[in-house]
């Protein structure tokens, strides 16, 4: 807990803790003369998963893990593929307790002596040209680390298309094993050592994400964790958010979330998912598209209201007939999802129920007011806000998570460490079980006080529609 003097004093957090615990003996002490460096793919959540897989691979190959900077999401206001220091996202002192690490900034490796590929840079083995977005990501990695991977002197030659790297690739760049989901390794298998059999000093591991398979617990279990599950959650335990993020979160919560609360992550960005669902989708993604397209704002608000009315007793420590909810969303959806919450608030008022709503808008305002002059918020504002919100979601007494979201998945993995997997449900399941399409649904007078609010929001959405793409998901309020 923070003292009153701590809370009264406005100061910038300490970010760089790379030298903390630098003399600690790690649980896995790895070869100090062989190194492996991951080249991450996609956004921050995928990069974290790639890091966790890289830790397992470094242990199996007995190579010290050289940590490169992370890279920004392509939606970040400062631009995509910009370097993010590892200690902005990661608790370095904690990671040191687990594994031998170094940093690419030390320039231990100026060139990749060998490329271990988890995923390839060609769509198919017989393609003539590499995928430009993946070549671009390698270039961003090179710029951030000053470590060379690609052959640039002959980049325009046909020879480059067959041999794009300065060093040998394992497997070869056009191996069929690299198509689609790429290489698939089990944590129990020795295939990893045979595929990446090299004594070269500096290795890069290209694009890891769901390539090194750990067993993950996604629901409550009555039996002890297996050895594989224990290994994975040991890695999760040592790859948590840094101390400064935990401190910021504690200060924010003591001001605005001082008590039990439901955390909700709504990831279904209207523009992104309207594009996704415009194409035929299979499996669960197709089902999610169908549910999003027919739910609308009122449907989500009604589902959330029914959920709170029926499950409020699961969260103890609150006054009778009251709830607190924290809702996180992409910045582009923050105002829209806040309106949905206001709609739910009106519905619950009609049932004599009080709900306190805290959202991404409140977190953003708090961080700007209290840390706006701090370099980390100026340089990596979107990163810091997202990390604080993940910590809030992790601490929630109940979690409503977004299916098919790496952000939600990483939060759930951390909650499992505290046996919190009993108290969570997906937003899509929430709508299925409590929304208008639920077979148990009855209209009861749950929205007797909401018609006026609905009309007001509808007028705002009509005005918004003149400036934005076609309505989708929660933007369908005027038609819901």
Automatic annotation (TrEMBL):
Keyword field: Carbohydrate metabolism, Fucose metabolism, Transferase
Superkingdom as given in the UniProt entry: Eukaryota
PANTHER family: GDP-FUCOSE PROTEIN O-FUCOSYLTRANSFERASE 2
Protein name: Oidioi.mRNA.OKI2018_I69.chr2.g5027.t1.cds
Naturally occurring in which organism (per UniProt): Oikopleura dioica
């Amino acid at each position: 807990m923070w003292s009153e003097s701590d809370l009264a004093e406005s100061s910038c957090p300490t970010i760089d803790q790379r030298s903390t615990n630098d003399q600690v003996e790690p649980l896995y002490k790895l070869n100090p003369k062989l190194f492996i460096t991951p080249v991450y793919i996609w956004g921050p959540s995928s990069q974290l998963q790639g890091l966790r897989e890289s830790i397992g691979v470094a242990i199996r190959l007995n190579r010290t893990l050289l940590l490169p900077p992370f890279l920004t999401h392509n939606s970040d206001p400062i631009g995509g593929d910009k370097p993010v220091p590892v200690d902005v996202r990661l608790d370095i002192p904690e990671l040191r307790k687990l594994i031998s690490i170094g940093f690419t900034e030390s320039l231990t490796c100026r060139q990749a002596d060998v490329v271990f590929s988890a995923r390839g840079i060609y769509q198919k083995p017989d393609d003539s040209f590499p995928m430009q977005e993946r070549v671009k990501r390698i270039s961003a990695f090179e710029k951030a680390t000053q470590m060379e991977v690609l052959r640039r002197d002959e980049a325009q030659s046909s020879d480059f298309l067959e041999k794009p790297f300065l060093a040998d690739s394992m497997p070869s760049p056009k191996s069929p094993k690299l198509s689609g989901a790429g290489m698939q390794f089990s944590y129990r298998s020795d295939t990893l050592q045979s595929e990446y059999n090299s004594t070269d000093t500096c290795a890069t591991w290209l694009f890891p994400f769901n390539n090194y398979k750990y067993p993950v617990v996604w629901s409550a279990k009555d039996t002890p964790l297996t050895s594989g599950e224990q290994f994975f959650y040991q890695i999760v335990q040592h790859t948590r958010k840094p101390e400064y993020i935990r401190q910021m979160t504690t200060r924010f919560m003591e001001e605005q979330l001082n008590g039990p609360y439901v955390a909700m992550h709504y990831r279904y960005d209207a523009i992104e998912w309207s594009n996704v669902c415009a194409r035929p989708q299979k499996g669960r993604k197709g089902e999610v598209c169908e549910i999003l397209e027919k739910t609308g704002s009122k449907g989500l608000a009604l589902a959330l209201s029914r959920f709170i009315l029926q499950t409020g007793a699961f969260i103890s420590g609150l006054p009778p007939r009251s709830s607190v909810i924290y809702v996180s969303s992409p910045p582009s959806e923050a105002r829209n999802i806040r309106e949905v919450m206001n709609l739910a608030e009106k519905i619950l008022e009609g049932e004599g129920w009080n709900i306190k709503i805290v959202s991404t808008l409140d977190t953003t305002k708090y961080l700007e007011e209290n840390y706006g002059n701090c370099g980390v918020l100026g340089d990596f504002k979107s990163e810091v806000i997202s990390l604080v919100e993940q910590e809030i979601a992790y601490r929630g007494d109940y979690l409503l998570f977004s299916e098919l979201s790496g952000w939600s998945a990483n939060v759930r993995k951390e909650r499992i460490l505290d046996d919190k997997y009993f108290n969570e449900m997906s937003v899509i399941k929430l709508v299925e079980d409590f929304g208008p399409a639920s077979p148990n649904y009855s209209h009861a007078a749950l929205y007797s006080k909401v018609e006026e609010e609905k009309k007001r929001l509808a007028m705002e959405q009509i005005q918004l529609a003149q400036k934005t793409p076609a309505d989708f998901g929660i933007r369908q309020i005027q038609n819901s």
